[in-house]
Every structure is written in structure tokens, then in C-alpha cells.
Amino acid sequence: MPTTSVLKIEEQSGRRRAIELKGSGLPLQGVEFGGSTVLATSWNPGNAEATQHVLGPQEIPSTLSGVWRTTQLVRTPCSYSEQGSTKAVTFAYSLANILSEFQRSGQSLLVTWFNCITSGTPNTITFTKREQLITRIGRLSEFKPKYDRIDDIEWNATFVWTGRGVPPAKLVDDAEDVVAKLRAANIAASQAATKIASDEFLGSRQTRLFPNQLTLGQLEAMADAPRVMVDSFATTANGISNRLKRVGDLIIKIRETPAAILGRILDVANNAVGVSNQFIDELSREGPETLSASNKVSSLTQSVRYYSGAQTLAESIRDANNDLARTVRRRRNASDVSGSVAGGSDALSNDILAVYIPRQGDTFVSIAIKYYQTETYGPVLARMNGYPSYTVEPPRKRPVIIPSVRNIEAQATSRV
User: Fold this and answer.
1) Do residues 403 and 355 make contact, with C-beta atoms less than 8 angstroms apart?
2) Which of 78, 111, 186, 385 is deepest in the core (most CB within 10 A)?
3) pLDDT of amino acid 263
4) For residue 208, what are the domain limits?
5) Which 3 state secondary structure label does DSSP give 376?
């Protein structure tokens, strides 16, 4: 599901109108949302050092600029809301009139720049709010449109801020740590799959490990089981890498790690650890003399070198996924998520229908009706997102994973 940026400007009083700028309606790049600290500095007589009193933070005014062209806005309309009614805005002069009215009204404005996940067909695109990236509250002090033509308008808007309007967010989201560990585990699995299948590894097996002077009977008598085991592990490592990448991509898209996704990550990590340990155990049972048909020291050396290299790669996968599993468990414990509820594959990364951000008044039943056209799956949807099935309302602004119809039907029939 692709993402898009949206700049929403909404009045906090008066008529409470709102405009959402999207696509070509957005300001040009280079917008500053800076701040400063107000300091009172005093140089006392006779002192070589001054004293300072911190009077508090202050938001620096921001100037946004851009160009509105009707021919482009028709393809990516903005939207205007008033009194519960929302309309598309496709004309440049309409946007100019709206911003001018905001400036003239002098109302306090909440300005939010966030990303959305888009879904649906080109004719029925829907937007789901994903995350507030930048939030400011203040007033539009200046709006200066320059009319090249009625449908081509260059504009500048200056906002003077009074604050950020919301409690300060965490400087670093927990999802970032999970993504970093996911990437490390993904790299370990990808490198293992690539190296085992590489020409260098194959050459060490087929040329040096099994020299040409060996007869066909000798080749057939060689210990095939370890080689087949290594080949199988290479395929498994590649599968682990792909699954980790899919889950990591999903987290990056929604910038959250809900319970269902954490459970999926833990499943993949635990599986990777188990497979790696089994491979290491089986490979270590074979002595060097069983890995080569020749008793020559050179042949035994090449054999041991190859299989010990494969074992080292498996150990790197195991260690990286153990680290990932520990991080996920800490994250789940910090979120007070019940392991018995969210510890399984309730919502597979490739079996997710949508990601929904709850709004005021939403319930699991209303969300189920929205996506499945039945209230029956409300309790199941709550359970699959890590909440007790009797939970009525999901926490606001925390993503709700919407599993595929097949997944939620399976959970509805398998659990009471």
C-alpha cells in the first residue's frame, strides 16, 4: 500500500473549517519548523561569567510556499471540510480563497503534517491516517497569492506559532529498535543463503572437495546427507530472510509495532533459531572423515572448511534472531501485551487486509462492520490485535491490524 503526505489546517474555533493539502497541493520542499529557547542573560559587575535564566521554548514562525495549478490538482484533489461535510477541491483559485479566509478570520489553527496509507482503486482511493509527523498550533499571519492566471497561482503563507498543540512525543519510537534488529537478522539470513549458493562455496564442494580423479562409485559413496542438509538450510535461510523483510517493510509503512505484528516477528525469529540450532546439531554429529570419500589430509581439510563455514553462517542467523526475539519480548512486556493472546501468527504480514487508525467513537464492532460487513468479527478483531475479546473501543491513534477475511474466519471458528 503506497503512502502519501498530507498537510491539514483546521480551525480550533469559529466555523471549525479544515483543508487538507495533498499531492500537488502541498507546499514545496524546504519548510522550516524550528524552535528556539528564550534566555535572559545577565552580566553581573565583577563577574567574568554571565548568568542565564531559561524562560522556556519558543516556536519559530514558518513560511510555506508553493504553486497551485488546476491541471495538476484535478489528478490529486485536496479536500475541504465544514460542518461535517467534506468536498474535493480541484481549482487553484478555490484553495487561494480558502487560505485567504483562514488568514482573515484570525482563528487559532492546528496544522498537522502526516503520512497516509492509500488503498483502493484509482477511482476509489481511501486514506488512513498513519502518524502525525509535525504538529503546530498558531495563526496564519500572512497569505500572499500571486496570480499568473486564475488556474496558476504561486503562493506564500506565514504561520506564527503558539505551541505544538500536543504532548511531546517519544524522541525515538520503540519500532525503530525492532526494525534495526529485524534488519540485522535479515542480513544474517540473506548472507547465509547467498554464500552457501555462491560459486566459491560450490567450487569448494565440487572441485576441491570432490576431485576429478574420484570414480563414480566413490562419488556416490560420499556422505550426501550433510550436503543435502546444507542445501536445504540455504533454502530455509532465504525463506527466513524474505519473511523478515516483509514484516520489516510493514513496520516501516505504519511506523508502529502492534501486538499482532510483534507476535508474527516472534514466530519468525523463534523458527529461525530452532532451524539453525537443528542444523548446527545435525552437522556437528558428522565427523570430518564422513564428509569426504578420501582419507587424504587435503580432502579432509577442504571438507571440514566447507561445513564449518556453513555452521558459522547458521550460528550468525541463530544469534541475530535470538537478539531480535529478546527485543520483541521486551517491547511486548513494555506494552503490557498478553503473550497468550498476541504470541501467535494471528495476523500474517502477507495476510493483512488493511491498517486502520481508530478515530473517536470507533469500536471493534464498527470497524468489523466497515471491513467485513458484519459485527460478528468484532470480538475476534480485538483478540487478534492483542486485546481481550470483550474490549469495546480500541485505543485511539494506535493502529488496528485488519486481517484478511480468510484469517479472521479461521480465528472465529478455531476459538471461542
Assistant:
1) no
2) 385
3) 75
4) 174-342
5) helix
